[in-house]
Each structure stands twice: as C-alpha cells, then as structure tokens.
Here is the input.
Amino acid sequence: MKRITELALLGCMPIFISGRAPAQATQGAAGEADSRIASVPKDLLSVPPLPLGSSTILGGAIGDVDTVLDRFTLRIVGEKPMKIVYDERTRVFLDGKRIPLNQLRPSEHASVQTTLDGTSVFALSVHILSQLKEGDYRGEVVNYNPATGDLDLVSGMGGDPIGIRVTSETRFERKGQISFAAGQSGPADLQRGTLVSVRFEPDGKGRGSASEITLLATPGSQFVFSGNLISLDIHTGLVMLFDAKDNRSYRIQFNPGTIPLIQNVHAGQRVRITAEYDGTRYLARDVNPY
Here is the structure.
C-alpha cells in the first residue's frame, strides 16, 4: 500500500512556478501539461499487475500485522514464523465474505495464497475463519481434559491454542513408522506435546467435534529415519533429513558429544538416524552413514 500510494502521489503532484505570467502563456502551459498527462500510459497511474509465477497455499496463524510496512507474520506448526508482504492488490475474506484490506487482523485460523514477488513472499489472498468449520487440522497437544473431552491444540509457534471436543464417537489411530503405528491408540495418548492430525465437524458453538484423531508422535516414542542429509550444523546440533519413505523432511537435533560418528557425515550423504520424540523435538540417539 505504502509503495503504491507513493507512486500515485508522485504521478499526480502539481508543479508551482513563482512569478506572474501572461494569461495566454499560462493557458498555453496548462494545455501542454494536459497534453503531457494525457500521453502518460494509464498503467503507470494504476495498480501494478500481480506477480507472475506459481502460487502456494499456506495455513496457520496470522500475527504481527504491520500496516506501516505492509506485512504480517504467518505461524505454521513446526516451522519458523514467515514474513509475508501485502498491498491493495491482496484480497481478504472472512468466513468466505470479502472484507476491506484495512480489516486484516491477527487470526488463529487462516489460509494464505502466496507467490514470490522478487525475493519477498507476497499474499495474493487471505482467507480467515472466525471459528472452526469442517476439515482437517494438524497440531500439537497443549492440554487434554478426559473428564470433559476438551482438547487444546496449538497450530503455530507462539499461537493461542484452539479447542476441539473429543467424544465417545471419536476414532483413534496411529500413523507412521511400523513400530509406532503398531501400538494401541486412544485418548490416553493425548499427552502434552503429542503431534496429531484431527478431522472434525462444527458443533455449532465455535468449536470442532473430533470425528477422527491420527497420532503422529507421542512423547517417548522411538523413530528410525533414513534418507538424504539435507543440512548439518554441528554448532547448533541440528540436521535436516529427507526421508523418501514418506516424502517428508525432518528437523532432528543431536548432542555432538554423544554421537562421535557425526564428524564423519556431510550434507548430501545417506544416513540412518535413530531418534526419540520428547514432546518438543526429535532428539538423535545414533547417526550412521550407509
């Protein structure tokens, strides 16, 4: 908005000349000015076209809306907060109805259609939900009350929890590696830090009623990852690994002092990592190249 507004103001800024000029000369100058304005392509005085290229839809929580710098933060579960820019080309919707851009506010439930504008991530459209509707939700358990069935999940780093109701009709299953998926599943698995995928329906009270909960990782569970090492940072004790078995990348932390072989691996190498999920992270117990 700021960038586009400045261009518009510059294009329309009048020029004042001091001193008295003959009326005929003034009329002639005005005519020439009108002629010059008429010759300016309309595109220069209008909103620029949208960036070209493919778009991606991201879901998460909107925060830190900065109306001066025309940008906001999108918090996506398991990822670092992402800075996204916007301007008057961005369309904003609330529960499917378009609203003015100046009504863009922080929200816990939003999907953003994005594309690259130079080196910045630009919002083509923002869809905000005022309450949960039917769909799928992936997050981390913050709290579960078995007496009431109230389940609180967090969708992004630093975001406020959302509430979902667990009932006697809710189905449970484990998904992922064979050793984990083979275990029994149920409400007892809803410990703080458990990673879940929830399918829910609206209950008419602004909450979702869970029809199915898929458990992805529970605190203390063991996992074996194998695939290409994307990156390795010994100083921070972090590796990124792409596992072809499920086409996903994983952030795995490690203690260099307890894994001597970590000095022998490098980015691009195939490795096998035995790790434990402790409720906040995957922590490597063993790293072996192969």
